[in-house]
Recover the amino acids of this structure.
C-alpha cells in the first residue's frame, strides 16, 4: 500500500473533493447506498481505481467495523505549516480564530474537536508533536471529513506557540473546569485562541501560564466533568456567537 487508509462516507468524500492524493477506492460488494455510488463517480472522475471487497475484508483492512462500506487509500496527512497558516489569516484582513489542543490523547476526541472547530468557523487547529494523538484514520472518521476543510498544524512546543500567538495580537483563553470565571461571562473580541487540555489532566501548568484568561463551563448535574470534545465544542460556539455579535 502506497499511503494510508481512511474510511467512512464523509471522510472519503471530502478527501476525493479535496487536493489530497488518492490511489485506490475500496467498496463493499453489497454496498448500495446512493452516497457510495456518488463517491464511486467522484473516484472515477479522478481516475482512481475502484475495487470491490467483502465486508469482512474491509473490516480487516480498516481494523474497524465502522467503515460504512467504503475506504480510500490516500497519501499521508499533510499538516499545515504554522507560520504559513498565521500569514494566511493575517492576509485575510479579518480577526483570527484558532483552536489549540494541549495533549489530546483520544483520536475520537481529536476528530470531534476538529469537526466542531470547522463548524464554528475556526481558521486553524494546532496540536503538539509529542505526547498527543495525531491525525489518524480514526480521527479522520470522527471528524466526518473536517480535517480536509480546516488546516491542522503540528508544533513542537504549545507554550511557546501561545507566546507567539500573543505577540501576533491574539487573546489566549484556556478551558479549565476549576476556573471561577464562566465562559458565558467572558467577552470575546478580536483574534482569539482557545486552549483545550487533555482528557485526564487538562491544560498543563506551563501552557496555563500563557493563557490570558482561564474559564470554565458551569455544570448543574452530578457528573464532575465534561468530555474534552464536548467542553471544547460548547466553548467554540460560545466564542463564535460572541465574536459575531461584536462584529455586527
Amino acid at each position: 500500500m502506497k499511503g494510508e487508509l481512511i474510511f467512512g462516507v464523509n471522510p472519503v468524500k471530502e478527501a476525493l473533493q479535496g487536493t489530497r492524493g488518492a490511489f485506490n477506492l475500496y467498496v463493499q460488494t453489497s454496498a448500495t447506498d446512493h452516497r457510495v455510488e456518488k463517491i464511486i463517480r467522484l473516484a472515477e472522475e479522478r481516475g482512481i481505481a475502484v475495487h470491490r471487497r467483502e465486508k469482512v475484508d474491509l473490516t480487516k483492512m480498516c481494523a474497524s467495523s465502522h467503515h460504512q462500506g467504503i475506504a480510500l487509500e490516500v497519501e499521508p496527512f499533510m499538516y499545515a505549516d504554522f507560520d504559513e497558516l498565521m500569514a494566511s489569516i493575517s492576509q485575510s484582513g479579518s480577526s483570527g480564530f484558532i483552536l489549540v489542543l494541549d495533549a489530546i490523547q483520544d483520536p475520537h476526541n481529536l476528530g470531534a474537536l476538529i469537526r466542531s472547530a470547522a463548524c464554528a468557523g475556526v481558521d486553524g487547529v494546532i496540536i503538539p508533536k509529542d505526547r498527543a494523538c495525531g491525525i489518524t484514520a480514526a480521527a479522520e472518521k470522527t471528524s466526518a471529513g473536517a480535517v480536509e476543510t480546516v488546516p491542522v498544524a503540528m508544533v513542537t512546543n504549545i507554550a511557546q506557540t501561545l507566546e507567539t500567538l500573543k505577540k501576533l495580537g491574539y487573546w489566549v483563553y484556556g478551558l479549565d473546569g476549576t476556573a471561577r470565571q464562566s465562559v458565558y461571562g467572558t467577552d470575546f473580541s478580536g483574534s482569539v485562541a482557545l486552549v483545550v487540555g487533555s482528557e485526564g489532566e487538562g491544560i498543563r501548568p506551563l501552557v496555563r501560564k500563557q493563557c490570558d484568561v482561564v474559564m470554565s463551563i458551569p455544570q448543574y448535574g452530578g457528573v464532575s466533568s465534561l468530555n474534552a470534545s464536548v467542553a471544547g465544542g460548547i466553548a467554540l460556539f460560545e466564542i463564535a456567537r460572541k465574536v459575531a455579535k461584536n462584529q455586527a
User: Anything to note?
Assistant: The first helix runs from residue 9 to 17. Strands lie at 4-7, 22-28, 49-53, 70-74, 97-101, 124-128, 152-155, 171-175, 192-196, 213-215.
